[in-house]
Amino acid sequence: MTRTFGGLGTLALGLVLLGAAMAVSLGVGAVSVPVPQVLEVVARRFHLGDFDVSLLNDQIVWQLRLPRVLGAASVGAGLALCGAVLQSLTRNDLADPYLLGISGGAAVGAVTVIVLGVPFAGLIGSAAVTAAGFVGALAALLAVLVLAAGRSGALPPTRTILAGVAVGQVCAAYTSFLVIMSGDSQAARRVLSWTLGSVAGLRWESAVFLAVVALVATVGIVALADQLDAFAFGEASARSLGVDVTRLRWLLLVGTALVTACLVAYAGLIGFVGLVVPHMVRLATGPGHRLLLPMCAVVGAITLVLADTVARSVVEGQEVPIGVVTGVVGAPFFAWLLRRGRHHA
Amino acid sequence: MPEQHGVRLEVRDASWRVAGRTIVEDVDLVCEPGTVTGLLGPNGSGKTTLINLVAGLTRPATGSVSVDGRDLHALPHRERARLVGLVEQQASTTLDLTVRQVVELGRIPHRKGRLPALDTAPDEHEVVDHALRLADVEDLADRSWQTLSGGERQRTQLARAVAQRPAVLLLDEPTNHLDLGHQLDFLARVRGLGLTTVAALHDLELAAAYCDRVAVLDAGRVVAVGAVADVLTSELIAEVYGVDATVEPHPVHDRPHVRWNGPRTKVRA
Predict the structure, then answer these.
(1) Residue B1 lies in a domain
(2) Ranges for the ABC transporter domain (chain B) (predicted)?
């Protein structure tokens, strides 16, 4: 709804900032690499020039940090985008990407593998956690959809949210039970750290996969921007503007849930990004989805790249879970947004 | 800009049920091009349901709705939205939209491309400006929806519906929350559009003054339909609304004037 040119300018600025944040982030860590050398490493790898880079810097920047930075950007973009879509679709400001029981379901899968140490689908270790988390998220999604969909096949938002809460509670009960009964403090620690999220362990293959997921999600969802705009005055109004509401709901609820399941499987439960970033962006862009959605992806990516940078540098010699960083920054910010909103109302 | 001319609207044997209860039953209604039809009837008589059926929001259990000879419920959603515009009783949003942005929503069914950021139709601005003018909200174009009065909101919604450039305009009790002056102004504007219009109305006076024809619903059935003077009789008002009323020609304009005297004294037990 915003003038196209201004929108494109804002988007370009956001992408430049994202590039800058990634460059800075690549230099930060146990060994710090100056930004110019970071750029040289990346440029050489893309065959953009014959730079003289040290093997060590190449290893650190390209092999160790870029997958995690790319992963953080992709996860942040995906979470913020899904959060924005679900907030619009359900007309609920508190909606976030974990709305449909995704977090609980993924936790059931991941925690089962972590605590019981069982292989999953022939995989062991973190690959098994990823696979089990994904399957768990899908199972929870399925349960939520079965509970929420009426005989007519419609997905009324309120019932969908409540079904998500119900499934989430059952999952939480199961995971708590499993952790307590196992009596294994190591496992409990690993469960806690998975729950708070991390992009530390990402390798190139996973990072590329996450990037593809985020990119496909962004393009697919931005293409539906107009139809989300049509929900401004509610469902009946959207229908009268020619939106096939039931079809769009299924498409977007299932689509965002699949995207979230992919992200969660690799990065765990990173809170607040999907909830807060859309509100933050809406302040700047207004509610029109043509600009809001791509900007959410960009700002979400920047946010998580910065959060991950803090997570690996704030305490020397130790990783702080990224969910702790997003929570510490996100929660006060969200509270501020709420108070600000009160003045409007 | 060429005005969209009204087209013929036909509702044939339309019924709708929910949870085993019939809300609208065997409704036949024909609206000639460019006429304004008032939909009257007490609360719960099925006016809103019928409006939603005609708007294509809900599909009739039996029967059909056709616009210009085309079955509305067989059309793709977008195409239907280009034929029929709807103004709800009281639209609300929590979003911070300007009046222009609200009116631009009406262009959504006309955007064909799938890359929304890149293709705004060249005539979009013109159509929106025109709609803002017709509904007399051009001076409010940059105002926030949240700061508008009830009358301004309703005119903005009318502008949004006009921006859809529909052939049929449906209004669901559009004047319920407006003061008298704004009620008259709003309905005069609607008449001025020249679209085939169906408006659910509570106020019999308003219906008498602004509609060409009225259809009266009672318990989901059309119990009377025709020219205002033929339909709005004290017998019908007593029967349908349970109100004792006198209908006589208005002293200033010659349309029927309804004066109520009190609740109907029960004749039958």
Answers:
(1) no
(2) 9-244
Based on the fold, state whether residues B35 and B131 are members of the same structural domain. yes
Contacts of B88 in chain A (CB under 8 A): 233, 236-237
Q: Which residues of chain B have pLDDT under 70?
A: 1-5, 113-121, 265-269
Question: At B29, which amino acid appears?
Answer: L
- Tokens encoding A35: 């930004």
In chain A, the number of structural domains is: 1
Say whether both B258 and B193 belong to one domain: no
> Is the pLDDT reported for residue A344 higher than 50?
no
Spacing of C-alpha B82 from chain mean position: 16
Nearest to B115 among A223, A227, A230 (CB): A223
CATH number of the domain bearing residue A323? 1.10.3470.10
Mean pLDDT taken over chain B: 89
- Residue A234 in contact with partner chain B when CB distance is under 8 A: yes
Residue B2 lies in a domain: no
What residues of chain B lie within 8 A of the CB of A251, using their CB? Answer: none
Give the HSE-up count for residue B157: Cα atoms under 13 Å, Cβ half-sphere. 27
Question: Is there a domain that residue A252 lies in?
Answer: yes
Judged by DSSP in three states, B225 sits in strand
pLDDT at B1: 45
Same domain, B146 and B257: no
A7 within domain boundaries: no
Helix or strand run (H / E) with residue A279: helix A273-285
Q: Residues B148-185: pLDDT tens digits?
A: 999 999 999 999 999 999 999 999 999 988 889 999 99
Domain that holds residue B114: 9-232
B181 and B246 together in one domain:
no
Contact between chains at A239 and B109 (C-beta distance less than 8 A): no
Asked if the structure places residue B21 within a domain, the reply is: yes
Does any domain span residue A12? no
Chain-chain contact of A1 with B101 (C-beta, under 8 angstroms): yes
Report if residue B42 sits inside a domain. yes
On average, the pLDDT of chain A sits at 88
A274-306 pLDDT, tens per residue? 999 999 999 888 889 989 999 999 999 999 999
The boundaries of the domain holding residue A274 are 21-344
Report how many Cβ contacts below 8 Å link chain A to chain B: 89
Report d(CA B55, CA B49) in Å as an integer.
Answer: 10
- Rounded-to-integer distance, Cα A73 and Cα A69, Å: 6
CATH of the domain at B86: 3.40.50.300
pLDDT in tens, B49-88: 999 999 988 899 999 999 999 999 999 999 999 999 999 9
Q: Which one of A236, A241, A294 has the shortest CB-CB distance to B81?
A: A241
Nearest CA in chain A to B105: A230
> Taking CB atoms and an 8 Å limit, are A243 and B111 in contact across chains?
no
Answer yes or no: do B156 and B221 share one domain. Answer: yes
Instruction: Give the residue among A200, A281, A303 at the shortest CA–CA distance from A11.
Output: A281
B172 and B254 belong to one structural domain: no
- Write out residues 164-193 of A within 8 Å (CB-CB) of B: none
pTM: 0.86
Interface of B with A (CB under 8 A): 52, 55-57, 77-82, 84-86, 88, 91-97, 101-102, 104-106, 108-109, 111, 114-118, 120, 146, 164
A12 confidence band (pLDDT: 50, 70, 90): very high
User: Is the domain of B130 the same as that of B248?
Assistant: no
Among A4, A240, A241, beta carbon nearest to B120: A4
Tell the residue number behind the tokens 């509904």, with chain if given.
B135
Cα separation of B34 and B37, whole Å?
10
What's the one-letter identity of residue A177?
F
